[in-house]
From TrEMBL:
Signal peptide: 1-22
TPR repeat copies, ranges: 248-281
Coiled coil: none
Species name: Alteriqipengyuania abyssalis
Protein name, as recorded: Tetratricopeptide repeat protein
Keywords on record: Repeat, Signal, TPR repeat
Length: 307
């Protein structure tokens, strides 16, 4: 059972995000693990971590690594270290968890101190309600060693959660916050050690500034076509190149079509031409970054599978 250094009460807040709709092309690719040194690792033995939250984190870490897959195939073989004696690496660690509560500035509330016979407030008074700030600190010490003792990966990054609450609010639940942070650490480990396969809807460039009237209309129609048939839209973009020429929007969109189709060489060519046509646009540079990342992922996968 967790104990606080002070008796406190708490408040939880959430936010909502609204979706944005736009003309896009779907790009599906594999992106690299953050730690390229882990590419050779195919099997990992998990030791039980130390600390009050260590066993929970070791289970979450095992689950996160076990969930890593490329084209539906598991990326790692994961098992307890006591069982997996022929593995490539062993994961060990511990977790230190602290909860500190400090006095925070009070909040001012207005309360009714006098009402009439119809319960209408006749007199109000401002009062100060004492408040506190809770800081949850979770400090992992995680090490991945090869079975011959070489350090492959380490993670000592502290994660925090802070909640400000006042005496007129409900008591905060610490365990859900800890669980959220442990999930975050486990996910961080998964993305550090294994590539990820994901689909992204990348926005096409739509600006027609500088295009002639008729080609501009055809370009607009090709943009609209991305909502119905991406392959047909890409054919339309390519067909417009002789007419429109070196326009950043057309060049970027052709490059994006090539990237979506896995033709990295063609995509890079058009992204570079788009940058030359209009250096102020960040989209082509981001495209080049994606391709470099995917090429690094291909290198990692080749090492992982011994190709």
């Amino acid at each position: 059972m967790r104990t606080l250094k002070m008796v406190v009460v708490g408040l939880g807040l959430g936010t909502l995000a609204m979706p944005v709709s736009a003309e896009t092309l779907r790009v599906v690719g594999v992106y690299p693990a953050h730690n390229g040194d882990a590419a050779e690792v195919q099997s990992i033995g998990i030791e039980q971590f130390g600390g009050i939250d260590g066993p929970t984190l070791s289970i979450k870490a095992a689950d996160a690594l076990r969930s890593a897959s490329i084209d539906g195939e598991p990326y790692f073989r994961v098992a307890p270290a006591s069982v997996l004696r022929d593995g490539d690496a062993v994961l060990s660690g511990s977790v230190a968890t602290d909860v500190d509560v400090y006095r925070a500035s009070p909040k001012e509330v207005e309360t009714c101190v006098k009402r009439d016979d119809k319960n209408k407030c006749l007199e109000k008074r401002k009062e100060k309600v004492p408040c506190e700030q809770l800081t949850l600190s979770v400090r992992p010490t995680i090490r991945l060693y090869s079975y011959d003792g070489v350090l492959i990966h380490d993670d000592d990054a502290e994660s925090q959660r802070q909640v400000r609450y006042c005496a007129d609010e409900s008591e905060p639940a610490i365990d859900p916050m800890v669980d959220e942070v442990l999930d975050e650490i486990a996910a961080r480990l998964r993305y550090a050690l294994a590539p990820q396969q994901r689909a992204e809807d990348i926005r096409v460039l739509e600006t027609r500034k500088g295009m002639e009237k008729e080609p501009g209309r055809a370009f607009r129609d090709a943009i609209a076509m991305t909502k119905r048939d991406e392959e047909m839209a890409c054919d339309a973009f390519a067909a417009l190149e002789p007419t429109i020429g070196e326009h950043v929007s057309l060049l970027f969109n052709i490059g994006l079509c090539a990237e979506a189709g896995g033709d990295f060489e063609r995509a890079q060519e058009y992204y570079r031409r788009a940058i030359k046509a209009d250096p102020s646009k960040s989209n082509p540079g981001e495209g080049l970054d994606r391709i470099r990342a995917r090429q690094e992922a291909e290198r990692q996968l080749a090492i992982h599978h011994g190709d």
